[in-house]
Design brief:
Elements (H helix, E strand, L loop, with lengths): L7 H9 L6 E5 L2 H4 L12 H5 L18 H15 L3 E5 L2 H4 L9 H16 L3 E7 L5 H4 L7 H18 L5 E6 L1 H10 L10 H25 L6 E6 L3 E3 L4 H24 L4 H7 L10 H5 L5 E5 L4 E3 L29 H12 L6 E5 L17 H19 L4 E7 L18 E4 L4 E4 L1 H18 L1
Helix pairs in contact: 1-16, 4-6, 8-10, 9-10, 11-12, 14-15, 15-16
The structure holds beta-D-fucopyranose (FCB).
Length: 461
């Protein structure tokens, strides 16, 4: 079994860099793993609808069954415990709680997440819940979705309903997951649900997503145990200039405004970066009096999802925060994303130094590779193992330089429905054999367990 090239001593040295209370876990999202799309009163989400539009998802796959986590929940919690995870980040499907988006509450939906949270707690695993990981109830989409301001208010109501049930037991709330993706991929270029192709609409959707976050904060605080940390998760990609040409400098600023500052600036500075609108010839979103203050409501932490950097050269800026596999000597994952661990160090330090973020969690980090089941129980994934090791090391470097990072969640616990890529991309530290729904821990999962043991040892001395 490939367990990484590091000795136990080396793993302990790396682990010792992190504070004793550092939280180690894995992450998933409702639509990507749950399945049971039509059970126990669940309403439909925009992904149920989008996935059935021909050409939108590879091989026409959907999340109808996914990893069937809804029915394997107890087994999956056992698996987390056997891996030694100390925390689990999952998301709540809004349409399970409110099938019409607002109004009648489906208590069976709340019951499911309560069973999950209690099962986690029984195993000593800290639950972190994300309230929106892209599965908007279709009923709200039919009224305009995130283009409508009222959706932000519906989200805050939904957040409070969930908090009343689970708020006494959670270790953290994440309001929105990657509003950049929900807005730009969903409304700007249409590769994600709901599939619009209108960049001005993306700006509006982004504003209402941010507003929903700000509106939910006091509602969550009031209905949760005192001191439960509340944050938002952004996908961020540090920008690197490919050369020092003058146009590259401008492309750099534009790309940074687009990929990072679009959401960071409103949250931490109370304003949008002008470059975002100027570079793309777009207008400001419909901002009403008080909106920017609501959006900039102080939170307890920022969740950072990091996969890769963005490399820019002069001329038209890149449209997406990922690279095409073209750099000589660079390594890429199965998504075509460049493996660039030092980008994570730099990103965390920037959030600390420039945005003065009080607390950071890496809420997603991981890699897709082509995995194969060898025999009955072995999945050898040395590249993913190496990716995780290098990125944890990169976080350690940022911590050593003062970045207040308090936790790390591997994306993902399980192979799952990777949005427009369907099941073709595997991100899990646990392999899922879809025909049988059997879970097989990959070598990277075994390695993570060994690292978590080293962490315990390093801090029990
Ligand atoms: C992030 C998403 C997550 C997963 C990873 C690979 O953008 O939050 O659901 O798809 O990418």
């Amino acid at each position: 079994m490939h367990m990484g090239n590091q000795t136990e001593e080396e793993l302990q040295q790396l682990a010792a860099v992190f504070p004793a209370k550092f939280v180690w876990g894995a992450a998933t999202a409702s639509y990507q793993i749950e399945g049971a799309a039509h059970e126990d009163g669940r309403g439909l989400s925009i992904w149920d609808r989008f996935a059935t539009i021909p050409g939108k998802v590879q091989r026409g796959e959907t999340g109808d069954i996914a990893t069937d986590h809804y029915h394997h929940m107890h087994e999956d919690v056992e698996l987390m415990a056997s891996l030694g995870l100390k925390a689990y980040r999952f998301s709540i499907a809004w349409p399970r709680i409110l099938p019409e988006g607002r109004g009648t509450i489906n208590t069976r939906g709340l019951d499911f997440y309560e069973r999950l949270v209690d099962a986690l707690l029984a195993k000593g695993i800290s639950p972190f819940a994300t309230l929106y990981h892209w599965d908007l109830p279709v009923a709200l989409q039919d009224q305009g979705g995130w283009l409508e301001r009222s959706t932000a208010y519906a989200f805050a109501d939904y957040a409070e309903i969930v908090a009343r049930r689970l708020g006494d037991r959670l270790s953290g709330w994440i309001t929105q997951n990657e509003p950049w993706c929900a807005a730009f991929l969903g409304y700007g270029i249409g590769v994600h649900a709901p599939g619009l192709e209108d960049q001005q609409a993306a700006i509006t959707a982004g504003h209402h997503l941010l507003l929903s976050h700000g509106l939910a904060i006091p509602r969550l605080r009031a209905a949760s145990k005192a001191g439960t940390p509340i944050g938002i998760t952004l996908n961020l990609s540090p920008i690197y200039a490919a050369d020092d040409a003058a146009e590259t400098r401008q492309a750099f600023e534009n790309a940074d405004a687009f990929s990072n500052r679009w959401f960071l600036d409103p949250l931490y500075r109370g304003s949008y970066p002008e470059e975002l609108f100027r570079a793309r010839g777009l207008a400001h979103p419909p901002i009403q009096a008080g909106d920017m203050e609501i959006i900039a409501t102080p939170t307890d932490f920022l969740g950072v999802n990091y996969y890769s950097r963005t490399l820019v050269a002069g001329g038209p800026e890149q449209k997406e925060p990922t690279n095409k596999p073209t750099l000589p000597g660079a390594e890429y994952t199965d998504m075509g994303w460049e493996i660039f661990p030092q980008g994570l160090t730099n990103l965390l330090l920037r959030l600390h130094n420039e945005y003065h973020v009080p607390s950071l969690y890496v809420t997603e980090n991981g890699a897709a590779f082509k995995d194969h089941l060898n025999g009955d129980s072995v999945v050898s994934d040395p590249q993913r193992l190496d990716y995780l090791y290098k990125h944890i090391k990169a976080i350690g470097k940022a911590v050593a330089q003062g970045a207040p990072v308090h936790g790390y969640f591997v994306w993902s616990l399980l192979d799952n429905f990777e949005w427009a890529e369907g099941y073709s991309k595997r991100f899990g530290i646990v392999y899922v054999d879809y025909p049988t729904q059997r879970r097989i821990v990959k070598d990277s999962g075994h390695w993570y367990t060994a690292f978590l043991k080293a962490f315990e040892q390093a801090h029990s001395r």
